[in-house]
Amino acid sequence: MKSSNIQVDTDQRTMRITIDRPKSLNALNTRTIEELSQAIDQAASDDEIRVVVITGAGDKAFVAGADIAEIQALDENGIRAFGDLGHATMNKIQHLGKPVIAAVNGYALGGGCELALACTLRIASDNALIGLPEITLGIIPGFGGTQRLTRITGSGRSLEMMLTGKPISAQKALDWGLFNQVVGQQDLASATHKLAAHLAKSAPRAMRSIIDAVNQGMDLPLEDGLKIEKDQFIKICRTKDMREGTTAFLEKRKAVFRGV
Ligand code: DAK
Fold this sequence. Notes:
- With 260 residues, this protein is of the alpha/beta class.
- It has two domains: 6-200, 2-enoyl-CoA Hydratase, Chain A, domain 1 (Alpha-Beta Complex), CATH 3.90.226.10; 204-250, Lyase 2-enoyl-coa Hydratase, Chain  A, domain 2 (Orthogonal Bundle), CATH 1.10.12.
- The chain has eleven helices and ten strands.
- Helix 1 runs parallel beside helix 3, helix 5 packs across helix 6 and helix 9 (204-217) packs antiparallel against helix 10.
């Protein structure tokens, strides 16, 4: 794909998207979010792609936020449009139905934190700092941070992060369940690759069902969530991959999942 603010590489069923504006610590301007959104559309429509990785260029930042210079210049209509674009893109990532791994290689602030929160899994280098510092600019998180952070960490911790604006360390984010894994800076690429390669071999339709069940059930009463799980289970039992997975186990061999 021809883009100027992101790089997209596809290899071994994994699409790797690198936000590439290192001079502004990979801050998200409108164009970058549009390009990111297009790349996610491409990942959605290509059955060969089973996993997406999102990271930032350079070794300092994942994404340092929305582009502050751009948002400062927006009028009210522009603010609305920017918010709509951001929400639509983060929702697209959350509901892609394929695992999206945020490889957090440094600052993940404001819109960068919100981008990581929209991803399915988050793996970070030990120098990462994650937070929602919008309050220091006199604004509030606007790409889903007030909602997604609270759902992951609970309201006590998310309110502390949003009201103080202070980012937290990778280790603390791991302890709070915000990061799934923290590794040394030099090991982030290999650890991400290992996780992506593992997921790329998993049954795609079952992964989609798991992601959908979690997304749909998260905010529902338990009984309603269990019904969603049951419906997904019945659906997954109609797939050839279910036959393949169970047969492979009984034949004592590795399953080869085709996503059908
Ligand atoms: N936007 C634009 N440029 C940025 C930037 C950002 N978020 N973050 C860094 N940069 C630029 C810096 O201005 C600097 O540019 P030059 O001066 O070299 O031209 C360059 O990147 C390097 O940054 P520093 O010189 O500041 O580097 P340091 O190592 O000293 O500091 C830092 C790194 C990450 C601590 C610092 O850069 C920083 O505090 N950055 C801002 C972090 C931040 O506040 N992020 C939240 C942004 S607000 C909306 C929905 C959502 C949003 C907005 C609207 N709607 C619904 C409408 C989202 C808002 C945000 O994310």
